[in-house]
Amino acid sequence: AHRQNPETKFFSPLLYNLPPPPLFSLACRARFLRLLSAGLKSSHLSSDMVAAFVKKCVRTATLVPPPSAMWLLTTAHVLLQRNQEGCSTLVHFASDSSSPINKEIPEAVSSDAFSYVKMVGDINVAEERKLRLASMSLWELTLLKLHYCPAVSDIATIFETDLSEPLPSGLSPDDLLNTTFDEIVAREFSERPGGKQGNNSAAIPLDFHM
């Protein structure tokens, strides 16, 4: 089955199921994420499956620690850059319940990124897969822009810029593989006015309010 149709029968479903949220809390996650990143470059991934991976990365970013959220967001951004034609609606799709496309979406076909793989591999649901993509806009980015960690919220705002522009220096997925929360905090303190190089009397927020 793998030789005959690796995309729908083997490769894509297994790859899609690999990164559950708890994995991103493991200390040894870097090697796995490096392999996952290599898998996402595969030519076996169709545009709709790439869109599903983008959605899953952004959804998972809302559930994991900041270092992993940063890696997931930059990975999603890179995937969008490589597949702008097929995935642009994820960022720019207008969610309107009265639109014809939404009226055609069956109730069972939800926009839950974690259940999307149930549709994969069944050649009889190709049209439903396309309809689902239209309902999978990246609404999580609005939430992530309010993230308590400034480093995460800053990356979330990058999706509002031109997707053809490269990520800022130091923000590629490879750059963030081994980033720790302590490093993020240390960077915030050193860059903030009143940090190591500034006036120590500057106020630093200690809580977060919606």
In short:
The protein is mainly alpha-helical. The chain is 49% helix and 0% strand. α3 packs antiparallel against α4 (66-82) and α4 runs parallel beside α9 (150-158).
Question: In words, what does this structure look like?
Answer:
- By secondary structure, the protein is an all-alpha fold.
- The chain has one domain.
- Helices cover 49% and strands 0% of the residues.
- The chain is built from ten helices and no strands.
- Helix 3 runs antiparallel to helix 4 (66-82) and helix 4 (66-82) packs parallel to helix 9 (150-158).
- The longest helix is centred in the middle third of the chain and has 17 residues, at 66-82.
- The model is unreliable at 1-8 and 93-124 (pLDDT under 50).
Give the key terms.
210 residues; 10 helices; disordered N terminus; CCAAT-binding_factor
Task: List low-pLDDT spans.
Answer: 1-8, 93-124
Amino-to-carboxy terminus distance: 50 Å
- Binned strand content: under 5%
The SS-based structural class is mainly alpha
Topology (elements, then pairings):
Elements: H1 6-17, H2 29-39, H3 47-61, H4 66-82, H5 84-92, H6 100-103, H7 126-134, H8 140-144, H9 150-158, H10 181-191
Helix pairs in contact: 3-4, 4-9
